[in-house]
Amino acid sequence: MPDSRASAQDLDRVASGLAACLPALNRALDRRVGQDFAQPKPPEAQLALLRFVARREGATVREAAEALLMRPNNVSALVSQLTERGLLERRQDAADKRIAHLYATARAQLELAEVRHLQDRHIARALQCLTEGEQDALGSALGALNSLARHLHPAPAAE
């Protein structure tokens, strides 16, 4: 991208707009899903951990903390909460008893599927209210947004 004052101003405008819009979008979606969820919806941090563990069965607390950009002690507290609720299973490592591997339970898989279904449904309904041009713009922006998320995610810490 050319280095000019106008493009820098455009980048600042887009950055500011995204920084304001994305959290508001997330909060609005979270509230909508919470209203329709059969039982009290788990907090987003718990859902994020469950999603990660469902994708990476057998992950450790440390791996989850790095992937979710959270402190290991906070992830450990979430693991305890989710284990108590029957949504997460903690299994000791055969070689090192200090390490636990995490597994989502069948119940967690069902809750994650329900949350995803509700999210998809609410977003699809909202998309129907947009113009065709707005829908196309959002569809075209998905790749860029995913790339932006990857660039914002810090590199793993060196051991």
> What is the string of SSEs from the N terminus onward?
HHEHHEEHH
* pLDDT averaged over residues: 91
Q: Which segments are poorly predicted (pLDDT under 50) over 5 or more consecutive residues? A: none
| Main sheet overview | 3 strands, antiparallel
Q: What structural class should be given to the helix and strand makeup?
A: mainly alpha
Per the principal axes of the C-alpha atoms, what is the gross shape? globular
How far from one another are the termini?
Answer: 35 Å
Instruction: Kindly provide the radius of gyration, computed on alpha-carbon positions and rounded to a whole number of angstroms.
Output: 19 Å
How would you describe this protein?
- By secondary structure, the chain is mainly alpha-helical.
- 69% of the residues lie in helices and 8% in strands.
- Strand 2 (88-92) and strand 3 (100-104) form a beta hairpin.
- The chain is globular and about 55 Å long.
- The model has no long low-confidence stretch (mean pLDDT 91).
